[in-house]
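Figure 2 data, in text form.
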Amino acid sequence: MLRNSKLPAAIVPRNLSHWKLWYIGLCSPPSGASVPLTTIFFDAGGTLVFPDLALTERQLASRGIVPSDEQRYAAERAAKRQFDKARAEHHSVDSQYWDIYYLRLFRELGMADDAELRASLVAATRKGTNWQQMRPDTREVLARLKWHYRIGLISNSDGSVRRLFELLGLADCFDSFTDSHLCGFEKPDPRIFEAAMASLGATPQQSLYVGDIFSVDFLGAQGVGMRAVLMDVAGAYRDTPYPRVETLAELESHLVGSP
C-alpha cells in the first residue's frame, strides 16, 4: 500500500526561511508543480545509530582517558568541516574521515598524535556492529513515520547494517536496506541512491534523504534530484543555510506535525 498518497498540509515548512531550500529549492520539478513526498531514506551512522563508546573508545579508556561529550562534539564539528572542504576541493578523503576525527579529538584532549593508537580507534569505529547506540525515541518516531511514508536505509557500511538493525530491534521499521558493501557503490556515488530508490519504486522527486555529512549525504542525494536534510546532532552546520534538524522528533514535526 502506498503511504501518503496525498501530501499532508503539515509538510509545508513552518519556518519557511529555514526550510525553503529543502522544500522549494530542492524538490520542485521542472513544471513547478508540487510532487508528494512518499519515501524517506535515512543514513545509519551519525543519523540513527551512534558508536558504542565502550567498544570504539576502549583503547582510550585503557589509558584512563575519557573524553567529554563536548570534546567529542567539538572534534566532530571540526572533522566534518575539514572533510567537507577536502571533498569540495576534489580530494578523495572518504576513507580518512575517522583519521581526521581522532586527530581532532586528540587535539581537544591536549594529546599529541599517536599513529598506532589512532589506527586502533579508527579500526574499532569503522566496524559496523560497534554502532549499537541510539536515541531513546528512535524506534517510536520511525514507526510513526512509517504510517505516512515508505522508509529505506542507505549506508556506507561493511555489509553488516541490516544485521545491526535487526539486533537493535529497528529492522521492521524499514522497507529496504541499501548497504554500500553489497551494492558496490559508496555515497556520494549517485548509483547507490538510484539503487535504493529502485528498491522501493520511488522517484527522486518523491524522495527525501536524511544524513549527517554535507559532502557525502546532502550533496549526494541532491545530485540525483532527491530532497535532502542534514541530521546535525553535533551542530556542525548550525551556522550554515543548509536545511537541518538535530533530532528525529524535529524532523517528524516538520513532516507530519507533533505526535
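Caption note: Confidence is low (pLDDT under 50) at residues 1-33.
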